[in-house]
Write a structure and sequence with these properties.
The complex is a heterodimer of chains A (about 550) and B (about 450).
Chain A (H helix, E strand, L loop, with lengths): L2 E10 L3 H12 L4 E4 L8 H4 L15 H17 L4 E10 L7 H12 L11 E4 H7 L9 E10 L1 H14 L3 E3 L2 E8 L6 E8 L4 E12 L5 H7 L9 E8 L7 E5 L5 E7 L2 E5 L3 E2 L11 H14 L8 E9 L16 E5 H5 L4 E6 L5 H16 L21 H8 L3 H11 L3 H5 L7 E3 L4 E2 H10 L7 H6 L12 H12 L3 H19 L8 H11 L17
Parallel strand pairs in A: 1-2, 1-9, 2-6, 3-11, 9-17
Antiparallel strand pairs in A: 3-5, 4-5, 7-8, 8-9, 10-13, 10-14, 10-15, 11-12, 12-13, 16-17, 18-19
Chain B lengths: L1 E5 L3 H12 L4 E5 L37 H11 L5 H4 L5 H19 L6 E3 L5 E4 L5 E4 L1 E3 H4 L8 E6 L8 H14 L7 E5 L4 H4 L5 H8 L4 H9 L7 E5 L8 H12 L2 E4 L8 H17 L2 E13 L2 E9 L4 E11 L9 E4 L2 E4 L58 E3 L15 H25 L1
Parallel strand pairs in B: 1-2, 1-13, 2-11, 7-8, 7-9, 9-10, 13-16
Antiparallel strand pairs in B: 3-6, 4-5, 11-12, 12-13, 14-15
Helix pairs in contact in B: 1-11, 1-12, 2-4, 4-12, 9-10
The chains are: A alpha+beta (about 550), B alpha/beta (about 450).
């Protein structure tokens, strides 16, 4: 007999869309459950560039998307001021570029009109000499360069904060729970929630709901099929390469051999480069970067930054966009818009909705729209509050220097803590008597791990890569995963064997992210990584790869 | 006219000291600390591993635990690609055991003046716990950890050093209990008890290496002994985290042991920190200095070849200057990727100095293609890339693609020689020691021949 719990809404999918809807509904007082098969944001959201921009790219074909993205970017800055950061962009113009400086000016003039929506500064035009002085790594072949202003966010943290806020406002959230089937009235009638399997506990659970929302991103067609509904997307794979250090403190545009725009941009102490957009037909649970994608991205970057190959690529990120279906168009020409589908009207399956398509930058607006539709069906008329109610930690921004001094932690650690936790940073630091650094790649404190395990629903060591960037730096967890496993073991009551298995699973996950890009400069690091994780494995741990989790 | 050893890990140092013992003039070129300095205290000749690709703990047929000599015999019979086959071509484990014992005596003598030593042995397996509680089924180890054989202890006390990062003795005690069970060994009492160090020393505990350095102070030995004494258990074993000094580890442990009236040893290290490797590295450098080996901090760039032999080593010193050393014999002990012996450049894997052919443990050439070609996506799969290295003949001469010595006077030792994955087949430092010693012998013969010619 399965345990059964009842809600007004069940949201399936813990990416930015699902977490955004769960938070929106919880703020309106709706009883909501959120279920995610891995950890929050581990699918498409983790693979996003974390850019909450209007997308200069969409200005021509999708000005609506640009408008909404810019508008909502402003809203995210209000509700999570700690989590956003300004990214100045440099856009070099080469002699052979089809769009020369004059046409570029016109486009950027247009884009400037959207900038006030997101507190962006207007563009500037730099001479060749000015641009090279600002960023000596730029190619000397440029004619000139433009600057424009965008905003970045830690995307997986944004998801976690939405889910956390939902939970703190009464939502029930379940990570590592995969939907096995949809519950139907009389076997094939109205959708009444879902039966899920908890991969960590190993049991099953029935989550009953009056309305069920499919917010599973690229997995949406597969979930819809469980209700006998046909849903089509044009899933588009995108990859990012992650460099050990910052290539530049500004973002730099690059052009692919096919004319596509890409860029490299700073993120924490890394730089990332991407992204690609290719129709994807493979297994959504096994999305790996392949060699020609790496070459394509590096080739593009090399045109803007000739020395790019001297920088060490430490890992890669791949994901699949849930792009709306379109026929006869190239990937880049497809609409970035979203849809809320009522499967009662569309397919005769009541109690079931899907939220598909969209952009990270406009997630809040999409969540609001979807929540409005669900509330209408439930007869709830509470207004949306997500544009003004701060996300956890976002009510005020504490003084980093003060926190570093009071708790005796280094400035770099304090900066990151305030970035991720805002005005809750002090509470995080109070989680252990004397906070200590676990990893030197990015100063991560044991206090933060203890806090996210206790208060933010972290369930596995692998979750911590997304939540607090454990092991995503140069050492890829060689130095820190073992010690981090022990912190989680204390908090979550793991026995020694479970701890060893979690560490082994973490190492295997990092390997998956590194193997596709493993070349010269990263080989020594991974040789040591293997010596650490394969070479000191306990006898009582299960063999590598024997995990029961998907 | 001297012998030049390139690489200053255990293999290179063993070669250089063996050359010096035999009266040769030796220069050792070392770019910096390598894999040896990242070690955790074990120097396994044939350690067992829980990994399916590693050496077994029990005899697969009889079910009895294997002795180190039996594991070595198993390895010689079943792993023809392992470079022990070059050292012991007749496959006689007893000869290999004798060689390992001789080498162990030599290494112990090199380490003793630095307050370190070598313990364990080839006759009986030692079971060594690391700071997380995982057990290593080992043979040789530095003496400070070898004394901590868990298998021969009736009761165990793990000393808690409050504030020491990355060390949770309660978690370690739990894992250790599970490890004994997994190996089918009887359970025994495992206690955790605080080490009551004076405040001045406790204040250093936030950095393991700082605490280790503080314990080297002349007045620290009685303080440590005093703190250890209350932990004593009859017929027992007290295990401390590896922070007992950087230069006086064995005297400190001996004083503590005498005061406590039982064995006192160190745990093996584990990431993120391991003063153990750092200590070994320092002691080896000190041994070089005592033996009169001249040490050049720098990176070898190229070897000058005349006819069938190398006559010079060109190098860039750490201060940026270039130098050319005349050489009668050269020992390559440059390690693999983390040591710089193997690199990937021009989109292919290569041996860094002579572009020697590189083979994995199944005999496949790796040096004609990019590293990613021999990478497997699944972490659990064997990774041929990390078993790869050059090959040597029976006299440890580096061989070319035709299987014959690439040069008449270029020898190789340590992990540069491929055919096993050191993360799985726990023979890395043991092979470094044995091959370094043998390469030193061969090189001294070459130097003598050249002198008499």
């Amino acid at each position: 007999m399965n345990a059964t719990r009842s809600f007004q809404v069940l949201v399936i999918g813990g990416g930015i869309n699902g977490a955004g809807v769960a938070r929106d509904l919880a703020l309106r007082g709706v009883r909501v459950a959120l279920v995610e098969k891995k950890d929050f944001g581990s699918g498409t959201t983790w693979a996003s560039s974390g850019m909450i921009h209007g997308g200069l790219r969409y200005l021509q074909q999708d000005p609506e998307v640009t408008y909404h993205s810019c508008l909502d970017s402003g809203a995210i800055q209000r509700i999570a001021p700690q989590l956003v950061f300004r990214i100045p962009f440099l856009m070099p113009v080469f002699p052979e570029d089809p769009i020369g400086p004059e046409l570029m000016e016109i486009g950027l003039e247009m884009y400037d009109r959207y900038q006030p929506l997101k507190n962006g500064r207007p563009h500037t035009r730099l001479s060749r000499e000015q641009a090279l002085r600002l960023e000596p790594a730029l190619s000397p072949r440029i004619d000139c360069a433009f600057t424009l202003d965008e905003w970045g966010v830690d995307a997986s943290r944004l998801v976690a904060l939405n889910a956390l806020d939902a939970a703190e406002r009464g939502a029930e959230v379940h990570t590592h729970c995969e939907v096995l089937s949809l519950l139907r009235e009389g076997g094939s009638g109205r959708v009444r929630g879902a039966r899920v399997r908890d991969f960590v506990r190993g049991d099953e659970l029935d989550l009953e709901a009056e309305v069920t929302l499919n917010a599973t991103g690229p997995w949406a067609p597969a979930l819809a099929a469980l209700a006998g509904v046909e849903l089509r997307l044009r899933p588009g794979k995108g990859i990012h390469l992650v460099f050990e250090r910052r290539v530049s403190d500004v973002a730099i545009y690059a052009r692919g051999v096919d004319g596509r725009d890409m860029f490299t941009f700073p993120h924490e102490q890394n730089s990332m480069a991407g992204t690609t957009d290719d129709d994807f037909y493979g297994d959504l649970d096994r999305v790996d970067v392949v060699e020609d994608e790496v070459r394509y991205v590096l080739q593009a970057m090399e045109r803007s930054i000739p020395g790019i190959r001297r920088h060490r690529v430490i890992h890669s990120i791949a994901g699949v966009r849930p792009t709306l279906w379109g026929f006869g168009a190239y990937e880049d020409e497809l609409s970035r818009d979203y849809e809320v589908l009522d499967h009662a009207a569309r397919d005769g399956v009541s109690g079931f909705y899907s939220l598909v398509g969209g952009k990270l930058a406009a997630y809040r607006l999409m969540a609001e729209d979807a929540s409005d539709r669900l509330c209408a069906e439930l007869g709830v008329d509470a207004p949306c509050r997500t544009a003004t109610a701060p996300l956890p930690g976002g009510a005020s921004t504490p003084d980093v220097a003060e926190i570093a001094r009071r708790f005796g932690v280094g400035w770099p650690a304090a900066v990151r803590l305030v970035f991720r936790h805002g005005d809750r940073a002090e509470r995080v630091l109070a989680a252990v008597p004397a906070p200590r650094t676990l990893c030197d790649c990015e100063p991560l404190l044991d206090a933060e791990l203890a806090h996210v395990a206790r208060r933010e629903g972290v369930r596995t060591l692998t979750d911590c890569a997304l939540r607090v960037r454990l092991g995503v730096g140069g050492c890829q967890g060689a130095a820190c995963a073992g010690a981090a496993g022990e912190v989680l073991a204390r908090e979550l009551g793991w026995d020694a064997e479970r701890t060893a298995a979690e560490v082994a699973e973490f190492a295997a996950e990092r390997w998956r992210a590194v193997a596709p890009i493993l070349t010269g400069p990263q080989l020594p690091a991974m040789e040591i990584h293997r010596a650490v994780h394969r070479g000191s494995r306990p006898w009582s741990a299960p063999p590598p790869g024997a995990t029961s989790r998907p | 006219m001297t012998a030049v050893v390139i690489g200053g890990g255990l293999a290179g140092v063993a070669a250089a000291l063996t050359l010096a013992e035999r009266g040769a003039e030796v220069t050792l070129v070392r770019a910096g600390p390598g894999a040896t300095a990242l070690g955790w205290g074990a120097v396994d000749v044939a350690g067992a591993s829980p990994d399916p690709g590693g050496l077994p703990w029990r005899d697969p047929v009889r079910g009895e635990p294997l002795s180190p000599a039996e594991r070595l015999g198993f390895l010689l019979r079943s792993r023809p690609a392992h470079p022990y086959a070059a050292l012991f071509p007749e496959g006689d484990p007893q000869r290999a055991v004798r060689a390992a014992k001789d080498a162990a005596v030599a290494l112990d003598a090199w380490l003793r003046p630095e307050g370190l030593g070598l313990g364990g042995g080839l006759d009986a397996t030692v079971l060594l716990a690391n700071v997380r509680g995982a057990l290593r089924v080992a043979d040789l180890a530095t003496a400070d950890v070898a004394a901590g054989d868990v298998g021969s202890a009736e009761s165990i006390v793990l000393a808690d050093v409050p504030g020491l990062p990355g060390y949770d003795p309660r978690a370690a005690a739990r894992l250790l209990a599970g490890e004994l069970a997994a190996l089918g060994l009887p359970a025994r009492p495992i206690r955790v008890a605080p080490l009551a160090l004076p405040d001045a020393l406790r204040a250093e505990a936030s950095r393991p290496a700082r605490l280790a350095a503080a314990l080297d102070a002349p007045d620290a030995a009685p303080l440590l002994a005093q703190a250890v004494a209350p932990l004593a258990a009859r017929e027992g074993l007290i295990l401390l985290p590896p922070v007992v000094g950087l230069a006086r580890t064995l005297p400190l442990l001996a004083a503590a042991s005498e005061r406590a009236g039982c064995r006192v040893a160190e745990l093996l290290g584990a990431p993120p920190w391991s003063p153990a490797g750092m200590r070994l590295d320092r002691a080896l450098l000190a041994a070089l200095a005592r033996a009169g080996v001249s040490l050049v901090q720098g990176r070898a760039l190229a070897l000058g070849v005349e006819g069938d032999r190398v006559t010079a080593v060109e190098l860039e010193r750490a201060d940026g200057g270039r130098e050319r050393l005349a050489a009668r014999a050269v020992v390559l002990a440059t390690g693999r990727f983390s040591g710089g012996g193997l690199v990937e450049s021009g989109d292919r894997v290569r041996e860094s100095l002579l572009d020697l052919p590189v083979y994995d443990d199944r005999g496949r050439r790796l040096d004609g293609e990019p590293a990613r070609r021999s990478l497997r996506r699944r972490y659990a799969d064997p990774q041929p890339l990390f078993s790869g290295g050059i090959r040597v003949d029976g006299r440890l001469r580096a061989v070319g693609a035709d299987g014959r010595p690439a040069q008449a006077n270029v020898l190789a030792a340590g992990e540069l020689v491929g055919g096993f994955d050191p993360a799985i087949c726990r023979t890395g430092l043991g092979f470094a020691l044995l091959s370094g010693r043998r390469a030193g012998e061969e090189a001294s013969r070459l130097v003598a021949e050249a002198a008499s010619a």
